[in-house]
Amino acid sequence: xxxxxxxxxxxxxxxxxxxxxxxxxxxxxxxxxxxxxxxxxxxxxxxxxxxxxxxxxxxxxxxxxxxxxxxxxxxxxxxxxxxxxxxxxxxxxxxxxxxxxxxxxxxxxxxxxxxxxxxxxxxxxxxxxxxxxxxxxxxxxxxxxxxxxxxxxxxxxxxxxxxxxxxxxxxxxxxxxxxxxxxxxxxxxxxxxxxxxxxxxxxxxxxxxxxxxxxxxxxxxxxxxxxxxxxxxxxxxxxxxxxxxxxxxxxxxxxxxxxxxxxxxxxxxxxxxxxxxxxxxxxxxxxxxxxxxxxxxxxxxxxxxxxxxxxxxxxxxxxxxxxxxxxxxxxxxxxxxxxxxxxxxxxxxxxxxxxxxxxxxxxxxxxxxxxxxxxxxxxxxxxxxxxxxxxxxxxxxxxxxxxxxxxxxxxxxxxxxxxxxxxxxxx
Length: 427
What we know:
Double Stranded RNA Binding Domain; single chain; 427 residues; three-stranded antiparallel sheet; four-stranded antiparallel sheet; alpha+beta; DNA polymerase, domain 1; 18 helices
């Protein structure tokens, strides 16, 4: 028996609280941690329960979801797996499309240009890029530098002379932009080769090719790291920061206490926070390494969270002025500017934490790197390390928060150092 109405669905989605609402007969409306809504159909096959996605809301309406669920339910009753049936249909359509494509290739057509392949590449990969602005950045870079030279050329005709003509004018003036541009041209030409639109060497390849004709980017201009405040100055800085009552200052303070990235803090929601256990669980979709990360919350961090205002209809820890949106990614940088600390960056506080951990504590490198959610570079080490060292990281972050907030007396320092030594011995 159906229980949802269109208005009820709109209200649930507008509220944005994560969870699943049953419409009846196995149809559910699911609201995810980030507020996105989709339809699921639950069925049993061979005694095992399965969930089948029926589409996102609002692209798929309540009526459409019920119709899809009805079709899937009918198949499952006859012992047919609706997911397998759907995959078969999609595969058949793919083969038909491929056959049509091959048929069209047999007749002479206008050569496909670099610009067309590039735009197809951007459209195909857009959904997989974490940053929504990434696609526009790709298009802007190629339009500014590449399209005017090779945009109208068939990909097969593009050679090393074309690539050098694009890169040389900006290789020394804008090395970062030039390096990204080279990589993007290489990927587009690789895509053209995968589509049998060109053959032979990729003229934009760096290793063993362009590296013989252009100087390395690192030697053109020294790499600039994020400016970090010396760890010895941090307690004084935080003491000044804590006097501010605005939300952006609290967000920056929370960022320092957790040693997390700017985007991880600004996009955080209350659904990710367990105030009782003192754990903040960041989903894999929001992590740079694509892996779920648990952050131990120290007492100062928990106290800060408890004192934050709640905004109806906005589940973010640090809600912005726009409805349902967090603070701007410039908010914390503006705090630094108001403090007349234009010499600092928000990301630099992670470097400050790492310097402090190395110079003051005896915690192993692995614990400190895990606290920063850094990927393990050594493949063998990564294969054997299954845990996230949460207990040791919890002690490390407690010591960090005491230091940051100026609460660490000499005795605390000696105890924490002994604790770090014990951690080193038991790791």
